[in-house]
Amino acid sequence: MGAESDFIDALRARATHPSARGLSDDAALFAGHVITHDMLVEGVHYLSSDPPADVAWKLLAVNLSDLAAKGAAPSAALLGYTLGAPAWDMRFAEGLHAALAHFGVTLIGGDTVRTTMGAPRSLGMTLIGRAGPRTPDRAGARPGDCIYVTSTLGDAGLGLKALRAGIDAPALIIAYRRPTPQCTAGVALAPHVSAMMDVSDGLLIDSIRLAATSGVRISIALDALPLSAAARAFAGDDLAARMSAATAGDDYQLLFSMAEKPPPLPCPVTCIGSVAAGAGLTLAYDGRPVALPEHLGWEH
Amino acid sequence: MGAESDFIDALRARATHPSARGLSDDAALFAGHVITHDMLVEGVHYLSSDPPADVAWKLLAVNLSDLAAKGAAPSAALLGYTLGAPAWDMRFAEGLHAALAHFGVTLIGGDTVRTTMGAPRSLGMTLIGRAGPRTPDRAGARPGDCIYVTSTLGDAGLGLKALRAGIDAPALIIAYRRPTPQCTAGVALAPHVSAMMDVSDGLLIDSIRLAATSGVRISIALDALPLSAAARAFAGDDLAARMSAATAGDDYQLLFSMAEKPPPLPCPVTCIGSVAAGAGLTLAYDGRPVALPEHLGWEH
């Protein structure tokens, strides 16, 4: 929305160092390392009823996803933590250790603070990874490239919907609470893609950002979006379901462009569109143009 | 307090990487860089009525102070920012740019998030600096060392008191709102000190931490504490005033130990005590022992 864009524009205006990449990226390249900082706010980015170990997993996963999009291998994290109920805190700490161990990340520092009574928790993580031989950004998509996405889209959004409605949909709820960042795929793809980012706010809004930074037009065939069996069972497979999957956010899949076929990956990958000269995003379904929806994704 | 210590202990138990230094330090040493992450919460670490540009200054200053204690030269920052009233946000952005320019720090990334209605802002900053030839920690104080502190103590605590009481005390209020981190002194001192940290939570609590990590006893002469003229004018100069200065926190001065005389510094430096074999902290005033107060400092 306007206020956030204005604030980021105000910061960007003077963030002219090459490492900052104009603050148009999810991560900075600094001294051979890729560094990212993402926050989760209770009631905004996760539900108060989400298990603390899952919140810890998600805090790490969203940062890992930023590094994956840069083809960087994660190594160290700093935690910014708002204390709350001690039992919740301890379960968060246990969950965080398990998640760090799972992904081979070392906790090297951070800060813990108290907040005022009843205030939502605000969690931050800075994640540092070794840059690979090539660090892709959002700027390189070229006319003629295909647009690809890893795994499936829309599961996390449906998981949130299920939680809010009190519906038991385990696979979707796990996708919402414990997203799987595409770390290995990101490292494998980085040398080959023309542009890459992760889909955190929703396919449409993120595709528009990719198109804008690259100075190209992106066309997406909604029919081609990879939906999971669980998502189809929950929400069907019509245009409305596909538009929801394309705007829900919280997917943490990789969105990338390249002219050749992608290298072998440890996850499914699907061509969902193409790049052409021009600007903006166009959508099609069943061979016909589809207007962009008013709500393109999670705009914070 | 207990809950925070338990949480940090739970994190520390498995933070065994050398970079983490057992999480007993304010900053991590990683790949030739010193990295710190500090948070400020509205209503806890600053007043809602503090000017946004001052809050931006303080967020940078508290992180710079951590780097100063490591003798590291600051270079790049990532910002974790909770959006609120747009006018406040814009003034924060302007103030942050001015502060970054003042200290020669580049903003390279971060995250901005919305929070729930009426929640206090929670601000985080990750600051990265180049490590110097030697990175001191809290572990090296040796019997026979003197304990030194830079500049004056207690001004910020009195500034907060003045703000809360509606008393006009400009020098003290500036010390609270716009602390001056001892960046240059930290770099100059790092090769020479046996141990060093910054005084963020209060001289007594921080001295106890230094003594515990070094495995020594520290004795401090409260008479020797450097108080500013503004502090003396505001709160007098008796034992109670000195005890307040030693427990108030928010000073961001450097506390360090060394056997020799400190090198020339761009700020005053005062010997306030000594290191001996043993454990814990002892206080004296006017040549007589003084019991430790119940409240040793800002324990979050």
Summarize, please.
The structure is a homodimer of 300-residue chains. Chain A is of the alpha+beta class.
Task: Please provide a written account of the structure.
The structure is a homodimer of 300-residue chains. By secondary structure, chain A is an alpha+beta fold. Chain A has two domains: 2-130, 2-Layer Sandwich (60s Ribosomal Protein L30, Chain: A), CATH 3.30.1330; 146-290, Phosphoribosyl-aminoimidazole Synthetase, Chain A, domain 2. Chain A contains nine helices and twelve strands. Chain A has helices at 2-12, 52-68, 86-103, 155-165, 170-177, 183-189, 203-214, 229-235, 239-247; strands at residues 28-30, 33-41, 73-82, 106-113, 122-130, 146-150, 195-199, 217-221, 253-258, 269-276, 280-285, 288-290. In chain A, the strands form two sheets. The first copy, chain A, has a seven-stranded mixed beta sheet. In chain A, a hairpin with a 2-residue loop joins strand 11 and strand 12. In chain A, helix 2 (52-68) packs parallel to helix 3 and helix 4 packs across helix 5 (170-177). The longest helix of chain A has 18 residues, at 86-103. The mean pLDDT of chain A is 93.
